[in-house]
Amino acid sequence: MAALAPSPAAAAAGTKSAASAAMPLVRIADVEKVYGGRQGPVRAVASASLDVARGEFVSLLGPSGCGKSTLLMMIAGLERPTRGAISLDGSPVVTPRRDIGIIFQDATLLPWKTVEENVLFPVRILKLPVERYRERARELLAMVGLDGFLRHKPAQLSGGMRQRVAICRALIHDPAILLMDEPFSALDAITRDQMNVTLSEIMERTGKTVIFVTHSIREAAFLSDRVVVMGGRPSRIILDEPMPFGRPRRLDIEETPAFGQMVRRLRLTIEEGHGGAMSGRTGGGE
Amino acid sequence: MANAIGTETGAMVATPAAEPGAGLSNARAILLPIGLALLALGLWQAACVIGHIPPVILPSPLSTFRYIGERWDILLTHAIPTTVESALGFVLASVLGIALAVVITYSRLAREALYPNLVFFQLIPKIALAPLFIIWLGIGTQSRVAFSVFIAFFPVVIATSAGFASVDRGMLRLCRSLTATERQIFLHVRFPAALPYIFSGMKVAVTLAIIGVIIGEFITAQAGLGYLIIFATARADTEVSMAAIVVLCLCGLLLYGLVALGEAVANRIYAAEAS
Q1: pLDDT of A118 strictly over 90
Q2: What mean pLDDT value characterizes chain A?
Q3: Distance CA A5, CA A2 (A)
Q4: How far is B93 from chain A (nearest CA, A)?
Q5: From the list B9, B177, B189, which residue is nearest A78 (CB)?
Q6: Do A153 and B11 touch (CB under 8 A)?
C-alpha cells in the first residue's frame, strides 16, 4: 500500500485476510449463464471455472460477445449465474457486495460533483464517515496525478483523467477486488497506453486483486499475471496462460520477442476459438 | 505521495477568457429586443394619434400607462388575488406533477396504466372543461385553483419523468454495485439529474397556471384581473382592459422570474462546470 493511508475499515480486517491467504480470493465453479431471449434462450457463458489468487491481476480476453463481461457482472453480483457458484473471500456472491470496486467503460461520474466528491461517492453510499476518507481520496488522486484537480468538475477533464477519477473512486473504500470492464476501450491509443502504465503502477503500489475484461490482446498481455481467453460457441474458457514478464513493467516490454510471441500465441488461440473466421488476418495484436 | 503516476494532466483546463467584443455583443442582445419593442410602441402611439383611433377601439400606450399610474390602487386590488391563485395553482401543479412522475418512474403498473391516459388527456382542449369546475367546486378560489392545477400539471409530469429516465444506465449500475438503496439512488443521482428537466416543465406550467386562473375569473370571479378585463370590456371601457392586461403581463413576468431564479440557484449547485 506504500504511503496510502489505509481505509479505516481495512485496519480492523487485517488479521482475517491473513488467515484466509491460502485459499483463492475468487472461486468461479462451473458457472453457466443463459439469457431468455426473444428467439429462445441464449447461452452467454457455457461453463466457466476459474480461481483468482489474492493480489493477482487476471484478464478475461476474447472477442465481443464471448461472455467475458457477463462473467465479470456475475462476479460483481450484478447478474446471477444460471448454474454454478461464485465465491469471494470464502462467501458466495449472490447480490452486489460492499467489498468490490468496479470500473466501467465509461467513467460514469456525476457531472455536478467535483472530482473529490465523485471519489467520495461510494463512501456516502456506504454510509462511512466521509471526513475520515477525505485524506485517502486526496492521496489516491495524487497517486494518479490529479491532486491539482480536486475542485474540478468532470466536464473539465479529458477522457483519460475522468477514467483515473473512476479508478480512485473504485479504490476509495479499499475493496478486496477491482473489477474492470473494458475501462480504457473508449480512449485513444496513446491515452490508453498511458492508462495501462498508470494502472500497472497503481497495482504495484496497492497490491490489489484485479479482474480485467478487455478485447485488446496487447493490453491483456501487458497488464496481467494471467490471461484467460474466452471464446467458442457457446462460450467457454479456452486458455488460461500465465504471463512470464517481470515487474515493474513498462511499455518497453512490448518491444521484446517474448512479448511478441505471447501476443501471437493469444491471437492464434482467439482465432481458433472463433472457428478460424479471423485466420485470414495476420500481423498486429489487436 | 511524492511522485505522481500519469502525465497527461495539463489538458482541457479551459478558462473561458472574455473574447474581445463580448461586452458589445451582450449589449446588442439586450438593446436590440428592447429597441424593437419601443419602436412597436411608438408606432402604436403614432397610429392612435395620427389615425384618430378612438380609445374604445384601441387605447394608446401613453394613455394606458397614464391610467395605470392614476388607478394603480384598483389594479393592485385585482392583481393580488390573480397572482396568489396562480402561484398556488402553479405550486400544487408542480408538487402533483413531480409526485406523479415519481410514481410513473418507480411503478411499472402505474407507468403502463397511467401514462397513456395522461397523454390522451392532454389531447382534450382542457379549457372546455372550465365551466364544469364551477359545477363541481363552486365559484370560489378553490375552483379556479383546481382548474389552474388541472391545466398546468401535465408538462411537469412529462418533463420530470423524462428527467428521471434520463439517468445514465452505467451510473445506475454503479450504484447497484455499491449496494445503494432506491432512496439513495433517487437523492444522489436521479433527482439532481432530472432538475433541468423539472425546471423546463415548471416554466411551461407557470404560464399555464396563470391562464387557468384567468379563464376561471372570466367565468365566475368577483375580483381579479380576469374579472376586471371582462367587466371593463362589457362596459366598453377598453382603457381599463388594456391596463389590466399590462398588469397581468407584469404578474406573469414576476412568477416566471421566480421560477427562473429557482432554476439559476439549482444550476449553481448542480452545475457541470466549476463554480
Answers
A1: yes
A2: 86
A3: 9
A4: 27
A5: B177
A6: no
DSSP chain A: -TTPPPPHHHHHHHHHHHHTTTS-SEEEEEEEEEEEETTEEEEEEEEEEEEE-TT-EEEEE-STTSSHHHHHHHHTTSS--SEEEEEETTEE-SS--TTEEEE-SS----TTS-HHHHHTHHHHHTT--HHHHHHHHHHHHHHTT-GGGTT--GGGS-HHHHHHHHHHHHHTT--SEEEEESTTTTS-HHHHHHHHHHHHHHHHHH--EEEEEES-HHHHHHH-SEEEEEETTTTEEEEEEE----SS--GGGGGSHHHHHHHHHHHHHHHHHTTTTTTT--S---
Is residue B152 within 8 A of residue B212, CB to CB? The reply is: yes
CB-CB contact of A141 with B1 (8 Å): no
- Whether B171 sits inside 8 A of A108 (CB atoms) is yes
Which DSSP symbol is given to B58? -
Cα radius of gyration rounded to whole Å, chain B: 25
How far is A162 from chain B, CA to nearest CA, in Å? 11
Per-residue confidence (pLDDT) for residue A231, from 0 to 100: 87
Give residue B193's pLDDT: 93
Residues 205-264 of A with CB under 8 A from B: none
Distance from CA of A173 to the nearest CA of B (A): 10
Tell me the per-residue pLDDT of B115-153, one tens digit each, with 9 for 90 and over. 899 888 888 888 999 999 999 998 889 999 999 999 999
- Domain boundaries along the sequence of chain B: 56-269
Poorest-confidence range of B56-60, B109-113, B154-158, B271-275?
B271-275
Question: Does pLDDT of A246 surpass 90?
Answer: no
Of residues A14 and B37, the one with the higher pLDDT is: B37
Whether A179 contacts A103, CB under 8 Å: yes
Residue bearing the bigger pLDDT, A90 or A276: A90
| pLDDT (tens digit per residue) in B213-270 | 999 999 987 899 999 999 999 999 999 999 999 999 999 999 999 999 999 999 888 8
Distance from CA of A5 to the nearest CA of B (A): 10
Phi, psi of A115 (to 5 degrees): -55, -50
Confidence class for position B19, pLDDT limits 50, 70, 90: low
8 Å CB contact of B4 and A147: yes
Q: Domain B56-269 has what CATH class?
A: mainly alpha
d(CA A213, CA A218): 13
Residue A21 is predicted with a pLDDT of 54
Query: Strands A226-231, A57-61: parallel, antiparallel or unpaired by DSSP?
Result: parallel
Peptide bond connecting A248 to the previous residue in cis, omega within 30 degrees of 0: yes
In a mutational test of the A interface, the residue from B168, B174, B265 whose CB has the highest number of chain A CBs within 10 Å is: B174
> Nearest CA to B182 among B104, B98, B106?
B106
List, as ranges, residues 137-196 from A with C-beta within 8 Å of B.
Answer: 139, 142-149, 151-158, 160-161, 164, 191, 194-195
Using CB atoms, pick whichever of A2, A96, A108 lies closest to residue B170: A108
